[in-house]
User: Fold Alanine racemase from Oenococcus kitaharae DSM 17330.
Amino acid sequence: MVTAIHRPTWLSVDLDAATHNLQAIRRWTKAKKVYAVLKANGYGLGAVQLAQAFETTAAADAFVVSNLDEALELRQAGIVRPIWVLGAWGYEDLDLFIKNKIVITVPSLDWLQHLPILSGQLMLSLAIDTGMTRIGFDQADQIAAAKQLIDQNPQLSLFSVYTHFATADESGEQSQHYFDMQLQRWHDLVDRQGFDPDLFSMANSATCIWHAGDPRISFAAIRPGQLISGVNVSNGDLPMPRDLQLEKVLGLYTELADVRFVKKGQALSYGATQTMPQDGYVGTMPFGYNDGWLRRMQGSSVLINQKKMPILGRITMDQTMVLLDQKYPLGTRVTLIGKDGPEEITLESVAAYSHTIVDEIQTTLAPRIKRIYTGDLAEVIGANNG
Assistant:
């Protein structure tokens, strides 16, 4: 998809704020190492630009992505710190993992037992399934067998032993019970295996925030992802700690491309689902569901001139209409996520209106929206030059 550099719709990404957040999370958790999760193009913010900022400032010790192509993109951009692919992977690309010094995840004993002859040293992360039931080892004897295979093969190097919590971002007795069950399962499976505890990686974003004081959890290496954006990753289910001062990283903006006077009762947009409530002005914005502002956002608000104004009619592929309180000149700025004077539309509020999570809203924002990087780090790494 071509980035629409000539269209007045843009995503603003503050690299200084993102770096501040990663450093604040390290302090909050007292983590020895921070592995910044930059999957899905850095949750839509730009994986390369975030990685360059975090590597320049030493805010991250390694980077975590979902697949090999995401990892190669970082390597090709000059990133030198370790890169770890979380997803299960076949054998066909092992040479690329080895050549580019990319960490591959071991999803099962069978995968490890059937490794083909290697062309060099392969770095591994051992997935421990404590209750997500996606990939990983769930039997202690198989973990022991895997460790023996790794220890006996000089071409295999263990980068991490990790797990992932399913309910770390949820409140309630049932969620806490499941979290405790996963923790106990981890210790039952791992404690007596003889692993170097510095290899343990247990804390994702939610675990970093709401379980940082739990002595049962290793903070040898944490994996913050969506939290880097400075948002509440529980979607308001759990309160953010007051003394964890995170900054908002992204803002989403467009401009009025058309303003017209419309008579009361005139139907608006596809399906004629809504009519003009009174004589007045309607603005059209160059932004639609192909940009990630999905049709379920009909009726939500945007900010214009420090005031909230409602979206009218169905959101279309490339354009969206808004009810104006007066006639505004073409090119007037519209805020979809961010502040305009005392008013603010947060990523969390957009997710709540859309009955989803902040991750979905942020990662759905399309590649065709141009990203503009701000802050001193943007100048240092030349984030907007190309």
